[in-house]
Design brief:
By secondary structure, the protein is an alpha+beta fold. The protein has three domains: 18-237 and 401-453, Bira Bifunctional Protein, Domain 2 (BirA Bifunctional Protein, domain 2, 2-Layer Sandwich); 253-381, YbaK/aminoacyl-tRNA synthetase-associated domain (YbaK protein, Alpha-Beta Complex), CATH 3.90.960.10; 470-570, Anticodon-binding domain (Rossmann fold). It is 28% helix and 28% strand. It has 16 helices and 32 strands. Helix 1 crosses helix 12 (444-454) and helix 2 crosses helix 6. It is globular. The two termini are 33 Å apart.
Length: 575
Amino acid sequence: MRWSTAYIPTLKESPADAEVISHKLLVRAGMVRKLTSGLYTYLPLGVKAINNVAKVVREEMDRAGFQELLMPMVQPADLWKETGRWEFYGKELLRFKDRNERDYCLGPTHEEVITDLVRGEVKSYRQLPVRLYQVQSKFRDERRPRFGLMRGREFVMKDAYSFDADDKGADSSYQAMRDAYVRIFTRLGLKFRPVEADSGSIGGNFSHEFMVLADTGEDTIAACTACQYAANVERAAVTWQGTVCTASCPPWQAIDTPSAHTVEEVCAQLGVPATSLIKTMLFDVDGEAVAVLVRGDREVNDVKLKNHMHATQINLASPEQVKAWTQAPVGFAGPVGLAVKYIFADNELQGATDYVTGANKGDTHLLHVSLPRDVQVSAYGDFRTITLADPCPRCGGRIETPKGIEVGHIFKLGTKYSEAMKATYLDVNGKEQTMIMGCYGIGVSRVVASAIEQNNDAGGIIFPPSIAPFSVVLLNLDPKKEEVSAQADALYAALQDTGLSVLLDDRDERPGVKFKDADLIGCPMQLVLGGKGLARGIVECKNRKTGEKGELPLADFASAFAAWQQQVLADWVVE
C-alpha cells in the first residue's frame, strides 16, 4: 500500500479523554476514532491489526479441532430466561423490543445461543464431542466505559464452546484449548501468564485467565517465584500456617473512641497495632445480612465470600444497612452481639485472642474480645486477599504481584447451561445424559490494545510482527527525484513478492514527519531510501523494537534483507 493513497490520519496530540497509553496511541496512529462513549470506528490500520490477531486465533483454533461458525449478535430473551440470566446478568445486558414487542438483547456472550443450536442437532454420544467457535462483535453496556479498546461497550471477541459426553472428555477439550491459548499468545509475541481465575457471571467450576503482563494492567496477579502457580488475586488461596490460640483474656469492655472510624484512627487513639484489631465488614448476600471478620491490616475478598456461600449477588452493605444492622454509623460495626444471619471469620484470626473490635455503638470500641468466647462464628475460612507476606499456596515459595491485562478466559462450565436448557444425548446404553460444556474467549480487539500497553516508547507503538498492520514501512525521502522513486518502487515490489505486507511512504512530506509517523504506527521493520543512500548503494534499516539502525546493500538486497529480518524476528521470541 502507498501512504499517499491510504487513509492513515495520524495526529500529533493525544485526545483529551484518553487515559491510557494504548488509547492515546491508537487514536494518534490513525487506527481508531471514537463515535460515542465506549464505541469506536476501526480505521484501516486498526482493522489490519485486528485481522492479524484473528488470523492467528483462527489458525490455532482450527489446529485444536474447533470449527468456525457465526451466530447472530441479536438474541431472543426466551433463551436467556431458560438459564435465568435474563434477570441475573444485570444492566450490562442491553435489552430492547422488536416491532412485535418481543424482548431481545445484544449478545455479550453466546452460551444460550450455542446450547440451543447443539441441543437441536446432537442426540447421540456418537456425535460428541462438538467444538465450535466464532469471531464476532459483542456488546456489553458497561457502566463506565473507559481506556479506549480496553473497556469499550462494543468489541471484537473470539468465543468458543465445547460439548462433551463426560468429564474426561470435557477435561480433554479444556486442555486442548489451554494449549491453544498458550500457542496463540506466544505467536502474538506477548509476555503473558495463565492464571487461576473466578468464573464470574459466566459460571462454571474451573477457569483460567490469560494475562498480558503490563504495569498499566487493571488486574493484579499473585504469582509464585518458585513454581508455576499464578492466580488472579480475587481467587488466590491464602494458606494459614499458624496454630489455634487457646490463651484467655480479660472480659471485654467498652471504651470511647470519638471520631475514630478507620483502622488507622482507632489504632492511633488506642495505641495498638492493626494486627490486634478485627475489622468487621458487612455484606448483603442474596438479601441476607452477612459479616466477615478479618485482621485490621487485611482486606476482605468478597469473591471468596460469594463462592463460599454459592451466592448470586453480593454487595457491600450501604450506610443505611450498616446502621439498621448495627444501630451505629459506618466504622463502628463489631461481632459481639451482632444480629446477622452469618458471621464468617478469616482463618488467621484463630491465631490470637484479646482483639479490639467495633462496639455497634457510635464512637465506641471494645477491648479484650475473644472470638471463641464472645462471638458466634458461623465458620472459619479463607476470606481475605493474599499479600506479599503470604506463602505460595502450592509450594510455599515467595509470592509476587505483577499487574496484568486479561485478554483470554477459559471456563469449564460443567452442566450449568446444558442442564437448564436440557441439552442431552443418549449414551451407549440408550440412557439420557446431560452434555458437559466448556467456554473459551479471547478479546481480539483488546489484544491489540494490550500489545500496545506492553510495547511502546516515546515515539509511539512497537507492534509485535504478527500483529503489526504492515511488516515493513519503506520511507522514500526524496519522492520528487525520479531515480529515487524508481528504486523505492523496485524495493516495494521485491518486498511484496516475498509475501510481506509493505507500506510505502511516498508522500511529499518532510523526512522528519515520515520518521515520526513510521515510529508512531509501530511497524517492526523500517527501511529508508534517499538520494544520498542511493548514491552510496545502500538502504538504511531500523529495528523498531530495539531502535538499532544499520545499512543493507542494494546490490545484494534480497539476501541481506532476509538475514536482517531474521534478526528482527528473533528479538520477538517470547521466552
